[in-house]
Write a structure and sequence with these properties.
33% of the residues lie in helices and 0% in strands. It is mostly helical. It is rod-shaped.
């Protein structure tokens, strides 16, 4: 009979390619891309109401208050 020996995973290290994706770089590029999309779409009123007004620091900048003298209704 042939007995099978168990393969130990600790003996074979896993290969990590130096050219593979890096999570820190991907996160940085994703953050910059998100900022670019929000900056590009900041002129759209729906984006201003739904996203930008809810950001604590800059939310008041996107609130448009119309004086009563300029309101036609």
């Amino acid at each position: 009979m042939v007995s099978q020996s168990p393969i130990l995973r600790a003996q074979i290290p896993s290969y990590k390619s130096p050219y593979g994706p890096n999570a820190v770089k991907m996160g940085a590029f994703g953050g910059v891309a998100l900022f670019g999309v929000i900056f590009f779409a900041s002129g759209i009123p729906r984006v201003q109401r739904d996203i930008l007004q809810k950001i604590p620091v800059i939310g008041n900048h996107y609130i448009k208050e119309i004086p009563a003298s300029d309101n036609p209704f």
